[in-house]
Amino acid sequence: MLSSLFQSTTIPVLQEVVSFAQARHTVLAGNIANLDVPGYQARDLSVEDFQARLKEALAARSGPAAGSPGEPGFADAPRPAAVAGVSQSVQRHDLGNVDLETQVSEMVKNQMQHNLAMTILTNQFKLLQTAISGNV
Questions:
Q1: Which helix (H) or strand (E) is 85 found in, with range?
Q2: What angle do CA 80, 86, 87 make, to 5 degrees?
Q3: Predicted TM-score (pTM) of this structure
Q4: Please, are residues 53 and 20 in contact by the beta-carbon 8 Å criterion?
Q5: Cα-based distances in Å from 90 to 17, 87, 123
Q6: What confidence tens digit (pLDDT) does each residue in 100-113 have?
Q7: How far is CA 55 from CA 13, 61, 121, in A?
Q8: Is the dihedral of CA 88, 93, 95, 96 positive or negative?
Q9: Greatest alpha-carbon span in the chain
Q10: How confident is the model at residue 73 (pLDDT cuts 50, 70, 90)?
Q11: Which residues have a Cβ under 8 Å from the Cβ of 28 and sit 6 or more positions away?
């Protein structure tokens, strides 16, 4: 019963978005931490790949007898993709390519995505709490 209650909301999808944003934040913070390491190449998680996989998972979810992305056994659940190198145009004498401004900008965008998902998730839980308690 609870499974069907959560499936009718965006909670499982928002959970995946929050997990991705947290994983990406860790990768971006690692880039900033290694800014002065000679030869360090910036890494990132592909937002486009995650969005495409999430879209596929949502399409599969709307089909018959599909589970939610947060449930075990959901075969196409979007998980953070493998960390890949980032191609940037920064040329440094030590062959590194970490650009502080780019990394901070990406971290801010990522944090905004995380905060938006958390706000919507909080509102979803408040709606469920109101529905369960009957206080309209």
A1: strand 84-85
A2: 150
A3: 0.73
A4: no
A5: 29, 9, 41
A6: 999 999 999 999 99
A7: 10, 10, 18
A8: negative
A9: 65
A10: very low
A11: 44, 103, 106, 107, 110
